[in-house]
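Supplementary Methods, section 5.1.

A reviewer requested that the exact input to the structure prediction be made available. We therefore reproduce it here, unchanged from the version used in the analyses.
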Amino acid sequence: SLVPSLATSWERVDNKTMVLKLRDGVKCHNGEDFNAEDVAFSFGPKRFKGEDAPGAAVASQFLGNIASVEAVDPLTVKITAESPDPLLERRFASFMGNCICKDGFEAAESWETWNKAPIGTGPYRVAEYRPGEFIRLEAFDSYWGEKAPAKSVTYKIVPEMAARVAGLLT
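The structure derived from this sequence is encoded token-by-token as follows.
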């Protein structure tokens, strides 16, 4: 069953509309407060729903039926589908339901730059990224939920199988 996370609850208004109540006190990795404006931006025209949005191709497959996502107040979001959608809750609980922090995305100035150091709300934040080599994440001390179990985590890209095995053994 679905369990709220960044939202504390949701309500189905009708077969095309859902209202989310967001968790108060959530911080973005850049230190700013996470709010309904961030959620609306996450699914809006600059990122996913616009004709020139960098994520439009992927979003259309998962969120194509979404007509609008709007901030009602700082902690309330209204989601409206174009037609009745029995999977509305599942769409926002899936991979494509990730919410970002608007200011962090806009500060990056491009989709490519933002993807190298995304600003979100999770228990880890990107500390260093070297394409083709590794990505190092570090615990985000202001995370609203249970603290990250490790201070940092590094994912290394090791294309050669023998080198991967040797690395794991050492």
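The chain has a mean pLDDT of 91. These observations are discussed further in the main text.
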